[in-house]
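Let's inspect a concrete specimen:
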Amino acid sequence: MRTTVKDVMTTDVTSVEAGASFKDVAEMLVERGVSAVPVLDGELRVLGVVSEGDLMRKEEFREQYYGESYRPPLRARLRRRMTGQPADGSGKAGGRTTAELMSAPAVTVAPSASIARAARIMDECGVKRLVVVDADGRLRGIVSRRDLLRMYLRDDDETRRRVVEGISPHTRWNDRDGILVEVHDGIVTLSGHTLKRGDADAAVRSTRRTEGVVDVQETLTWSENDVLEVPLAWYLR
């Protein structure tokens, strides 16, 4: 059973229109206790995201020109260089509406994407949350790192059930052999005996792919080695 973004995302999302003022957005972030909100057009399509960092650039800019020996953080300088923003940050510092302040385009993901895909996008783009949009680019929700971590909060019984479902029934039990699945704090232990090594290997691979599994330990044995092992030298030819 694959968990998708739709299964874990937040659907009650605070958003703003492109014409909202600096003050309106600042008040919204503080009152709602969020660090960023998507910016929408009149048809609920996502145009970008405006965050606390975007708003704080105005204060940073002010300090840069009126403070003593100011130097923006290295991360901020690198981000501006990569995105082509003015080195002095004057663009967002002078912004008055969300359209001028937001970061665009937003980093998005589809509701049907796997949580592994969402985690990969977050890591590649260096963001803590993704805007969830449909095929037309309309807002459907927000998924954060915290949402993705929920799968590790499942109890051991639920994790065991999912692991067992992923193992072929004829491998799980038969007249003499079978695989025993035990789970403790998310760590799965596979033990027992199978007729073929391929069945044991398949069970381990399936368990490692199961969402919520922290680690896999196995002491499986088998009667017949049906796995063809190609010498490393063959790959190097």
User: Anything to note?
Assistant: The first strand starts at residue 16 and ends at 17. The mean pLDDT is 80.
